[in-house]
Specification:
single chain; mainly alpha; 2 domains; rod-shaped
């Protein structure tokens, strides 16, 4: 076996004997995890999540108020449409009655105007 091969085997054995936390692959993989945990803990202890929760609760309350206002306005508009529909129906009935009256009176007038009139009889 050559001197280079011997040296390579010694280095590989030394690498295998090192603890896993001292290996470059482990360190490279664990650094992002450690940073993520630290960022999470920092956000947790700084009150970031509590503030977000409070902001969301305030937004929910605001949206509920808006929803109730929209429901109230919708109900009012529906009621107004119903009233206008009933009122329009009454006006239509009045117009139809008036139209019927006009038709009947025109027919009556036409029969009077265009009916043959008896010729006057001489008085003896």
């Amino acid at each position: 076996m050559g001197e280079l091969e011997q040296r390579k085997l010694e280095l590989e054995i030394a690498e295998l004997k090192r603890p896993f936390w001292q290996k470059a692959a482990y360190i490279g993989a664990s650094i992002p995890i450690v940073l993520a945990v630290l960022a999470f803990l920092s956000a947790l202890f700084s009150g970031y999540f509590n503030q977000e929760r409070i902001d969301l609760q305030n937004e929910i309350a605001t949206l509920k108020v808006e929803r109730d206002a929209i429901a109230y306005n919708n109900e009012r508009a529906s009621h107004m449409v119903d009233q206008f529909t009933k009122q329009a129906g009454r006006h239509l009935e009045d117009i139809q009655k008036e139209e019927q009256w006009v038709v009947e009176h025109r027919l009556g007038l036409a029969t009077i105007l265009y009916s043959p009139t008896p010729s006057p009889t001489p008085v003896p």
